[in-house]
Amino acid sequence: MEIYVVRRGNSVDSIAETLGVDVEGIIYDNQLEYPYELAVGQALLIDRGGRKAEREISVSGYAYPFIRPEVLNETLPFLSELPVFSYGFTKRGELLPPPYGEDDWMIAEAVRFGVLPVLTLTPFGPDGNFNNQLIHSVVNNTGYTERLLSDLLELMGGKGYRGLDIDFEYILAEDRDAFTAFVRRAAEVMRAAGYQTSVALAPKTSAGQEGLLYEGKDYGALGEAADYVLLMTYEWGYTYGPPMAVAPVNQVRRVVEYALTEIPARKINLGIPNYGYDWPLPYERGMTKAVTLGNVEAMRLAAQQGVQIEFDNLAESSHYTYTKEGIVHEVWFEDVRSLQAKFNLISEYDLRGCSYWQIMKWFRANWLLQDRFYLANG
User: In which band, very low, low, confident or very high, does the pLDDT at 51 lie, cut at 50, 70 and 90?
Assistant: First the structure.
């Protein structure tokens, strides 16, 4: 694989001729649509044949039950785990089904492809947001904890899930130790039944980092309790925040380096975003709301608008601005350059693997690039 950055005056035909590769391959691998418009600065994945995977890693990709079947089936060959998002629970520890649709078909497809189906557990309240009072109630009551774990075991055994992913966010600082005890108990119960347990961690850079996202997560203790952890190394740029890279590599590196002081590399999955954001400008805190874009969609938009894609060498992320109906927009997204930078981090620190949030949009070049670096599912 090689990455080619589009220059002014380039076309798909001229690039193919210069590099000595098939036009059809460039079009297919990069999901270009007729009339195959390109943006100056767009990064294209060029396949020169051969396979040079360095080593096998674990690759998981979160998906909602309403994922399109064709997207799931195209993605599964590149995964080793499929976390289905998500089950909830009440304050008394009663398990709640996912509100997004039926999950049995996803479990069946995962098994068919030799991928481990994983149940994701989240403390969502009635408003659809993370609710730390649900967490507080369950992790501080042994009876509620045991009820929830019993319900999970029964459901997982019946449906065919083979793992549990605990994604609790905004945990109260006072519940830090109780949450760790909950994860430790969950892992014990799951291991006894032959299942694995993972836990999602907010992207801390120090043990004493302040803030609701961070204070309730004890990296060292959670890393010891769970079979592995996911570092949620994304959302620096987010829906209501100022325009910036979603997962700037300079910040991601800081999180990884801190995590390695608390958790063995073999138990760490690096979080990777599979999306970008489009912010209308000027940005006003509490008012401006970004629109989520797929990475392929972001590149097509740049080409349609006739604007140049820039690459931030510090964040190692792509971005551009365009104007529509008199409103200036700023877009940040992932391309094969930013993804390669993240794969390089996995190699540099010899991490367990990576976890994508999320796989709802198909980005073929990502998976082809990953597959040249690593073998995930065979």
Answer: low
